[in-house]
């Protein structure tokens, strides 16, 4: 099985290499702004009735860049051509997203027209797709025009795959986050077919704010609440940044310190999410999650920060590719499936269940259970309820039956096929 997988490492560049990396990032930003100005100029000319071509594709923008780069950027030879190509590629993607959003062909909220990039604002990165891109040894990598750069952490995991011939580097993306430089290698990796530890088991996952996830087995995964625990420190360092003169040495130092704290919050959150999703995908044969409307939930101003800190949609995104890697099946419940309001024992549905009620009490059968565990149990039974096969049918396949079920999903028809397809 060949999959696309990224390996990310922290860099330890020399001062000269750090200046070169910053120059490549600036070159990417310059190409993006130059292309956006050209597109706006041509669009205004078309609006006036002039017969001009609007460079809307990457090939058209590259032709225009090669025709004008000697005039608009006489210093273009100082950086790799991939830096300028990366900026134009980012512009093309932004234009396509805006166009598809206007036509209703893009999911999610409306995307506005691209805006000019400003130094120090947004993500600073540059992508290399050609040239000298390789992992030299376990402590060095080679990048185009940058040369041999030292790595802060060993690259053994990727190096072994490359030496064994099971991985091939497609591109490298260099980015600066929290005052540090990182490189991310996008690789085509050959992975052996995976198999979960318990392929015959079905688990329901109820993701939330109080707990990161509650499983139908009764297991509770705690929420690290990375942002909430660092809010006081963030507020303190934000005030310290506001007291500095913008652009001064103290201001830059305070800004790097604040960025490092934001990076730490992100790393704590990502670590908890990756550990949870890896455990689920490598342990259970079928994982059932809720398809939540996170964008709509974030409109609640009282819960928005806690919901964003929990990153509920990220759990589902990671499970999509990790389940495929480990041979598990991911099932997503319908958006309005009443997992919290339904009794996991008798199936009775409550008309309403406020968030303040953390214990589910069924008036029909007298079940008293934690509301999150009750929701997780309902999600676990969703497979049997919709597919029309209970636990006895699944167990009758034997312990080797679950992988066969995954392979047979595309050929099956009826409710089972609709369920697995989501």
From TrEMBL:
Domain spans labelled Transposase putative helix-turn-helix: 1-43
Highest taxon listed in the record's lineage: Bacteria
Molecular function in Gene Ontology: DNA binding; metal ion binding
Entry keyword annotation includes Cell inner membrane: no
Protein name, per record: Transposase, IS605 OrfB family, central region
Domain Probable transposase IS891/IS1136/IS1341: 185-300
Domain Cas12f1-like TNB per the UniProt entry, residue ranges: 314-379
Keywords: DNA recombination, DNA-binding, Metal-binding, Transposition, Zinc
NCBIfam families tied to this protein: guided_TnpB, IS200/IS605 family accessory protein TnpB-like domain, IS607_TnpB
Family, per entry: In the C-terminal section; belongs to the transposase 35 family.
The keyword Lipoprotein appears for this protein: no
């Amino acid at each position: 099985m060949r999959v696309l997988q990224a390996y990310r490492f922290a860099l330890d560049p020399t001062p000269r290499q750090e200046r070169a990396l910053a120059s490549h990032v600036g070159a990417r930003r310059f190409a993006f702004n130059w292309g956006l100005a050209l597109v706006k100029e041509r669009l205004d000319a078309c609006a006036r009735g002039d017969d001009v071509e609007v460079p809307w594709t990457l090939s058209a923008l590259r032709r225009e860049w090669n025709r004008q780069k000697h005039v608009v950027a006489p210093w273009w030879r100082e950086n790799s051509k991939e830096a300028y190509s990366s900026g134009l590629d980012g512009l093309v993607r932004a234009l396509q997203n805006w166009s598809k959003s206007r036509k209703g062909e893009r999911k999610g909220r409306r995307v506005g027209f691209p805006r000019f990039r400003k130094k120090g604002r947004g993500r600073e990165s540059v992508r290399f797709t050609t040239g000298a891109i390789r992992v030299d040894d376990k402590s060095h990598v080679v990048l185009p025009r940058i040369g041999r750069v030292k790595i802060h952490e060993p690259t053994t995991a990727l190096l072994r795959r490359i030496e064994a011939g099971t991985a091939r580097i497609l591109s490298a993306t260099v980015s600066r986050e929290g005052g540090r430089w990182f490189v991310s290698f996008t690789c085509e990796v050959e992975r052996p077919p995976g198999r979960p530890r318990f392929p015959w088991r079905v688990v329901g996952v109820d993701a939330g704010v109080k707990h990161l996830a509650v499983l139908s087995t009764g297991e509770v995964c705690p929420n690290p609440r990375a942002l909430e625990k660092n809010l006081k420190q963030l507020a303190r360092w934000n005030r310290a940044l506001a007291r500095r003169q913008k652009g001064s040495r103290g201001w830059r130092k305070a800004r790097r310190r604040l960025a490092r704290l934001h990076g730490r919050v992100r790393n704590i959150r990502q670590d908890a999410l990756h550990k949870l999703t890896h455990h689920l995908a490598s342990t259970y044969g079928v994982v059932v999650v809720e398809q939540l409307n996170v964008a709509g939930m974030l409109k609640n101003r009282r819960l928005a920060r806690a919901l964003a800190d929990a990153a509920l949609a990220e759990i589902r995104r990671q499970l999509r590719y990790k389940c495929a890697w480990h041979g598990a099946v991911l099932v997503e419940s319908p958006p309005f499936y009443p997992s919290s309001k339904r009794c996991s024992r008798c199936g009775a549905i409550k008309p309403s269940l406020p968030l303040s009620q953390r214990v589910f009490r069924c008036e029909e059968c007298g079940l008293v259970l934690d509301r999150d565990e009750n929701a997780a149990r309902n999600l676990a039974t969703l497979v049997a309820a919709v597919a029309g096969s209970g636990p006895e049918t699944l167990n009758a396949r034997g312990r080797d039956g679950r992988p066969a079920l995954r392979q047979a999903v595309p050929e099956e028809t009826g409710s089972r096929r609709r369920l697995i397809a989501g």
